[in-house]
Amino acid sequence: MEVGGKRVLLRSDLNVPLEDGAVADDTRIRAALPTIELLVERAASRVVICSHLGRPKGPDPKLSLRPVARRLGELLGQEVAFDERGARLTLLENTRFNPEETASGEDYARQLASLGDLYVDDAFGSAHRAHASTVGVAQLLPAYAGLLLERELTELGKLLGEVDRPFVLISGGAKVEDKLGILQHLGRRADTVLIGGKMAEELRDEHPFDFPVVLPEDVVAASEFAADAERRVTPYDELPEGWLGLDIGPVTQRRFAAEIGKAKTVFWNGPMGVFEWPRFAEGTKAVARAVADVDGYTVVGGADSARAVNEIGVTDRIDWVSTGGGASLEFLEGKDLPGVAVIPESVT
Predict the structure, then answer these.
(1) What is the DSSP letter of 149?
(2) For 63-67, which contacts have Cβ atoms below 8 Å and span 24 or more sequence positions?
(3) Cα(226)–Cα(102) distance, rounded to whole angstroms?
(4) How far is CA 322 from CA 82, 183, 196, 247, 299, in A?
(5) What is the mean pLDDT of residues 117-144?
(6) How far apart are CA 234 and CA 218, in angstroms?
């Protein structure tokens, strides 16, 4: 689109973790930079950026985007004004401070739309939400996809077409209900499905799929759900009464790594255990190393999986690390994403 001399309202995904009033992980901010830089380079008269952060019930100083504006300015090498409508480059306050955001309120959508002549949606991580800043605005202004949104659809879309085989799907994490849809849809297309984390426990008791899955043979068990709990490695079916399996064990790590090593296409979403605690993170890190070693096309999705490849320094060996959590799962599940579906309608 021609942006020279025009005001652009840009929806980015700047939903990043904060610690002590500062950005703790700027991965999503860095992913947003190319579209912002392009709009500035093409002489937009004003770029107004909006995003949500967390799930506030109303205005909450702990979830203000002010620290994000500071970090964004540092990365861009120029000042980013905070919540100043008249500045050439500004970041608005958290969209979810307004209750109409999640309700896709028309009044709030109009308020946002009044700040731009054109709308660019670059927030793939929010594309599965029909909110005022993702869908409502796109119905009021000429709307376009940003560079990150377009790239996400391209890279993830490769998994839905013809892929090089073997195709290995790896799934984990605690939100079992969020993963069942993608396992049903993508699992049938995979040659091997590896499952760890809490999901493995539930699937061992009840297996809803019409294809085989590989579950852990052994686990790193803990006497209680605590970072410093007593731990031991035990076969899965010999887990002591009252103990919890908080990571895949060494036998399973080697089995999973061997299966991943055969792959030509890999999609991984979700940790193998309680990755936040170092004593129960080795299984997730072992999977991350194995994925990085694959001689083929590799995609990693989900915050914990992305954090794992970042922490062990192999991000540059992964073909695509998605910024979308629920959005990437719903896209690969075959669902339409409201924030994507609305764009061609508004352009035409």
Answers:
(1) H
(2) 63/18, 63/94, 63/96, 63/97, 64/93, 64/94, 65/14, 65/91, 65/92, 65/93, 65/94, 66/93, 67/18, 67/21, 67/22, 67/23
(3) 35
(4) 27, 18, 20, 24, 7
(5) 96
(6) 6
Coil vs helix vs strand at 81? strand
| Token pair 């790896």: residue | 170
Q: Are strands 22-23 and 7-11 parallel, antiparallel or unpaired?
A: unpaired
Domain boundaries, the chain: 7-145, 154-332
Q: Which of 232, 252, 255 is nearest to 244 (CA)?
A: 232
243 DSSP assignment: -
| pLDDT tens-digit series, residues 81-117 | 999 988 999 999 999 999 999 999 999 999 999 999 9
CA distance 322 to 156: 8
Give the count of alpha carbons within 13 A of 36, CB side only.
Answer: 28
Give the type of residue at 301.
G
pTM: 0.90
Place of tokens 């942006």: 3
User: Which fold is adopted by the domain 154-332?
Assistant: Rossmann fold (3.40.50)
Which backbone phi and psi does 11 adopt, to 5 degrees? -95, 110
User: Can you identify the CATH homologous superfamily of domain 7-145?
Assistant: Phosphoglycerate kinase, N-terminal domain (3.40.50.1260)
- In the chain, what's the furthest Cα-to-Cα distance? 68
Rounded to the nearest integer, the mean pLDDT of the chain is: 93
C-alpha torsion angle, residues 62, 64, 67, 73 (rounded to 10): 170
